[in-house]
Amino acid sequence: MMKKLWSIAGLAALVLLVVSCGGPRRNPGRAYMPDMAYSRAYETYASTENLKAKGINYTAMPVSGTMARGEMLFTYPYANDSAGYANSSNVKNPLNPDSIDMVEAERKYLIYCGVCHGAKLDGNGPLWKDGAGPFPAAPKSFMADDMKKMTEGTMYHSVTYGKNTMGSYASQLNVHDRWGVIAYIKKKQGGGAATADSAKATAPKMDTAAVKTGK
Ligand code: HEC
Questions:
Q1: Which of 75-79, 157-161, 209-213 has the lowest mean pLDDT?
Q2: How far is the CA of 103 from the centre of ligand 1 (A)?
């Protein structure tokens, strides 16, 4: 009698155990160390508001004193004003002409500049189309004399800060890429001649008293 009771109780316990384990679990149960179980990582495009209140340290800035891999050690010395523009012609392309990947520079030119300035550098890209395109202002033709005379430094100034109706390209192209694209334009203007020559002839010494801008 006793034995039978025990086996019934045992069977009931087994059934209970099997039933309780079956089916999808919706409850994660108790987390022993929630910090390890749930990532505090900042999700791409997620709001960064009130992160501090949630105990998350996020500054959106790189650690001070560090620099991104491959970043150029070049500091553009002039501010975004008329004096800076006038002085910009003193600045030379810091890239070694032999190190410039012209295929890559052309690719970037066609993506970021060609839409306005034209694949042929004639100022007649698809956004302008002789005035029939959607862009309201005529882009400069790099094949015109004034643009051939413009130094790399002044081009860099305008591409970095923007010029009149043309916006800044500093956020799309990093320092290295901006100089690369300019070297490409200069090469095309010279009909395939070497880069960096136009500025060399007249370039005086750099005005070191000018404001450091970090650009
Ligand atoms: C959305 C159209 C557009 C794009 C894209 C564009 N530009 Fe321009 N760019 C213009 C216009 C318009 C002007 C004439 C601005 C003015 O009125 O002086 C200009 C002028 C210039 C000048 C002459 C600036 C000066 O100091 O007079 C340079 C150099 C130049 N662009 C380089 C570039 C380069 C390099 C790129 C690609 C990184 C580029 N542009 C992309 C529209 C564009």
A1: 209-213
A2: 21
| pLDDT tens digits, one per residue of 72-85 | 888 899 999 999 99
Q: How far apart are CA 210 and CA 63, in angstroms?
A: 28
CB of 113 closer than 6 A to ligand 1?
Answer: yes
pLDDT in tens, 142-153: 999 999 999 999
Cβ contacts of 110 within 8 Å, gap of 6 or more: 119
| C-alpha pair distances (Å), 17 with each of 3, 20, 183 | 21, 5, 75
Chain mean position to CA 194: 28
* Total residues belonging to the chain: 215
Residue bearing the CA closest to ligand 1, atom 26:
158
CA 104–ligand 1 middle distance (angstroms) = 20
Using an 8 Å Cβ cutoff, are 135 and 117 in contact?
Answer: no
Q: How far is it, in rounded angstroms, from Cα 139 to Cα 127? A: 9
Our answer on whether the CB atom of 112 is closer than 6 Å to any ligand 1 atom is: yes
Q: Rounded to an integer, what distance in angstroms lies between the CA atom of residue 163 and that of residue 80?
A: 10
Q: What is the pLDDT of residues 91-149, one digit of tens each?
A: 999 999 999 999 999 999 999 999 999 999 999 999 999 999 999 999 999 999 999 99
Ligand 1 centroid, distance to 134 Cα (angstroms): 15
Give the Cα separation of 164 and 146 in Å (integer): 16
HSE (CB half, 13 Å, CA atoms) of 17? 6
